[in-house]
């Protein structure tokens, strides 16, 4: 069984941790912004989209980070058995497509939909048609990781 890992968010203004199951970001734990002192200071959310139905996502709050982490892990133990590898793959494909699209824009490459003939050239040099998903998911697999 793959263990959960966490990475600190790059936002220096707000303490937030991104929670990963392998390479899929499945949720967050962070300090709740604007919460009164009398309320729980830490919030957590479990869910990823696309790949997980919004109705199956979970969230909650806790007074401390350790309690929020424990609540997150309990929720994950309930949710994880309901997920299939295909659910994670949907999220990976979406992540990689958006990373590829951003790289195309950063490199000044036109998308196939921007050309009247429906073809363009990928930043890697390969000619690509409008239906270029196979190219993205094979040649650029993991670009967004």
Topology:
Layout: E1 4-8, E2 16-21, E3 24-31, E4 42-46, E5 58-62, H1 65-79, H2 85-106, E6 119-121, E7 127-129, H3 133-139
Antiparallel strand pairs: 1-2, 2-3, 3-4, 4-5, 6-7
Structure characterization notes:
The chain folds into two domains: 4-82, no CATH class; 85-139, no CATH class. The protein is 30% helix and 24% strand. It is built from three helices and seven strands, in the order E-E-E-E-E-H-H-E-E-H. The protein has helices spanning 65-79, 85-106, 133-139, and strands at residues 4-8, 16-21, 24-31, 42-46, 58-62, 119-121, 127-129. A hairpin with a 7-residue loop joins strand 1 and strand 2 (16-21). 12% of the residues are buried. The mean pLDDT is 95.
Work out the radius of gyration.
19 Å
Provide the β-strand percentage band.
15-25%
Total tally of structural domains: 2
Largest sheet: 5 strands, antiparallel
E-strand count: 7
What's the pLDDT, averaged over the residues?
Answer: 95
Give the helix level as a range of percent. Answer: 25-40%
Form type: elongated
**What's the N-to-C terminus distance?**
20 Å
Secondary-structure class: alpha+beta
Q: Point out poorly predicted stretches.
A: none
| Individual helix count | 3
Helices and strands, in N-to-C order?
Answer: EEEEEHHEEH
What topology, given as strand order, has the largest sheet? 1-2-3-4-5
